[in-house]
Specification:
- This protein has 165 residues and is mainly alpha-helical.
- It folds into two domains: 122 residues; 38 residues.
- It has six helices and four strands, in the order ααβααβαββα.
- Helix 1 runs parallel beside helix 4 and helix 4 runs parallel beside helix 5.
- The longest helix has 17 residues.
């Protein structure tokens, strides 16, 4: 399996966005103010047109299931894929304490997600909807901590008998 992982990492490296593609002339980026506003309207009305896999040329099927990989192989692919995202001005918001197999699966799922490609700044894939029961990170997510903090603040600042309604 390691030889396949080595080839996969080569494929990931080849899918990285090159420096010369990192200009406003690529991916239909607007050149005039009118084109800029038209692009904003399209983005608001329709959302992204293509998946990340469309842009980078990789497909989810190229990646073996996490359970077939060793911890070392998972780390190799995660590191390489994270760098791939960086070269495309993309990022994934995944808590550091998420198990490797879950992190791997979430990162690979980005290939099927529609996204815009930007030349300035970064777009971030956020998997958490801040609803602890449906959070994909389960007990590893900070949304539970945020909910606890919010409840503590609300109970400390506004005792039930003090609320006007």
């Amino acid at each position: 399996m390691q030889s396949y992982i080595n080839h996969l990492i080569e494929d990931i490296t080849q899918a990285e966005r090159s420096q010369e593609l990192n200009t406003r002339d690529n991916f239909g980026q607007p050149q005039t103010l009118e084109e800029e506003f038209a692009e904003i309207e399209r983005w608001l009305e329709q959302g992204p047109a293509h998946t990340f896999g469309y842009y980078c040329g990789l497909e989810q099927e190229q990646f073996p299931p996490a359970e077939k990989l060793t911890e070392k192989q998972l780390k190799q692919v995660i590191k390489s894929f994270s760098h791939l995202l960086f070269t495309w001005n993309l990022n994934a918001d995944i808590p550091a304490n998420v198990p490797l197999n879950k992190k791997y699966a979430l990162l690979i799922s980005i290939l099927g997600e529609k996204t815009d490609i930007v030349s300035i700044g970064f777009l971030t894939f956020d998997f958490c909807n801040y609803d602890p029961p449906s959070c994909p990170f389960e007990e590893h997510c900070i949304c539970k901590d945020l909910e606890d903090d919010t409840n503590d603040i609300m109970s400390d600042d506004f005792p039930d008998e003090a609320l006007p309604f």
